[in-house]
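Limitations
The structure tokens in this dataset are predictions for the assembled complex, not deposited experimental models. Users should treat interface geometry with appropriate caution, especially where small molecules or nucleic acid strands are included. An illustrative entry is reproduced here so readers can see what is and is not provided.
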Amino acid sequence: MDQSLATDLNKAAFGPDFHWGVSTAAFQIEGAAETDGKGLSVWDVFASRKNKIKNGHRPGDACNFYHQYADDIGLMAELNIPNFRFSLSWSRLLPAGVGAVNPKGIDYYNRVIDTLLEKGITPWVTLYHWDLPHALEQRGGWTHRDIVSWFSEYTALCAQHYGDRVKHFMVMNEPSVFTGAGYFLGVHAPGRRGLSNYLKAIHHSTLATATGANILRAALPKAQIGTTFSCTHLEPYTHSPSHIRATQRVDTLLNRTFIEPLLGLGYPIADFSVLKKIEKYIQPDDYDKMAFDFDFIGIQCYTREIVKASLWTPYIGASIVKASQRKVPHTLMNWEVYPEAIYEMIKKFSAYPQIKKLIVTENGAAFPDVWQSGAVNDVKRTEYLQGYLKEVLRAKREGHKTDGYFVWTLTDNFEWAEGFHPRFGLVHVDFETQQRTVKNSGLWYRDFLK
Ligand code: GAL
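Predicted assembly:
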């Protein structure tokens, strides 16, 4: 590590226009799954099924953000957090996904947004963070092409009600994860499997992202419109050609397939032949409809993975050598702590000339938190954040597009199929009492942001 980077790690070094914040998602924090007219989402249903969530956890009240939002926003203000990225629950606004609007749902996010603005915190709204209305899944969900028009209706509603105060929108959160885990592997909601479900979901989510972005732009010409992608720095297990080729396939699928069509480059079929099968689902004028000139792109990077060629893994022919097997420092998610990954990913995405601004819309870590004399002394989380931020600064100094950084996440919350065990928060939550305690990492971030 360049010594000057270590000593320069202060907010000013990133410049006055850099966006700092924290990120979260409706399903992971709100609870109130059936309160005030909300319809069920695919995650409400999936999480209620047997053996879908580790340790038999149930989301229940999650962090009770639905009722405690004002206190949590107050806490954010105390922590000097200037931007809050959160998602809207589609089925809270449109319980059946389309049609009848739920006025209490509309009002809820009005109150959240107004409270943020009163506290001087800028709302950054994600329209879709994986919690599809269950009623739409019953009609085919992301495998059904009509989802583009269902999503359009929802997007227009959000623009109509919140566009007067919300100036930063992200259309989608990590399509690679909700399509891959939810429609190919079946380990996330809605629990579907198979290549054709997956390819349809990929294509329809791409179309919906561009269509939704166009709707926002037409309705709110002054809003900043972005969308977010997960990305992982990949390296081959050895320099053997088979591992190198396997790494390229995984890179194509995870890091390129979702963003490139939206940038007008089409699907990277030439570099991963299985993707050719997606052409069945593409209609002639889709290519034009798939691209959008985003104001910013969000990337969400946590780790590096090491890739091995594997004859036994269908389609991709590759497998991951987990961090625990490699005996390298890792988080509770079994993700290697590898700060250079974020530098590599900023560099990679910044190289697309079509990207105007690049913001790290998620980065953070889950560790076993230790209480010491009434405080959570989460040294590892603070070190993780500092280590990754130094690499963000390095990328910025080298002239790569680097326009913001959002920590995942404010409060410990419901970590999808992993349940409540991996705690990512800057703020500890006692899920029995809903008591919040700022961890030492949160105090560090507060002082950093001062
Ligand atoms: C992202 C996701 C978040 C959160 C985070 C930590 O993939 O967008 O919802 O779960 O990872 O695992």
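Some entries come with short summary sentences. For this one: The chain has one domain: 16-234+254-303+336-449.
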